[in-house]
Amino acid sequence: xxxxxxxxxxxxxxxxxxxxxxxxxxxxxxxxxxxxxxxxxxxxxxxxxxxxxxxxxxxxxxxxxxxxxxxxxxxxxxxxxxxxxxxxxxxxxxxxxxxxxxxxxxxxxxxxxxxxxxxxxxxxxxxxxxxxxxxxxxxxxxxxxxxxxxxxx
Length: 153
Fold this sequence. Notes:
Blueprint lengths: L2 H4 L4 H23 L8 H4 L5 E9 L5 E5 L5 E5 L5 H16 L8 E5 L5 E4 L6 E3 L5 H12 L5
Antiparallel strand pairs: 1-2, 1-4, 2-3, 4-5, 5-6
């Protein structure tokens, strides 16, 4: 005979463990469906950008990309081949989405700066938006420099 035959498992402890598990599942379900814990991120509290710069990216035959202020036509920067790979990758993704939806380059892209220092790049034609701070300060700075140029105003 085994020891369990002489000393059965305490029913009180088993009942307490089962009750704790049931309570946890019910509390999680109620909290989830009642939205008792809404997100409190700074992104939610700053939905309106303080600055929006409309940009056009023009590919040149030599592989360079001219970045222009879409409202004034002023050239903000020229990205030479082999440099600023992050900017090229982000814009390639935006252009790919536009081509898949058969949307042209008529509408400029938006570079938006929010009061909480959040910086995003968005395409108003597709609704796609990228939070640039997710890629670190160096990559965020690659786009932030466009806002700092005098031609951006």
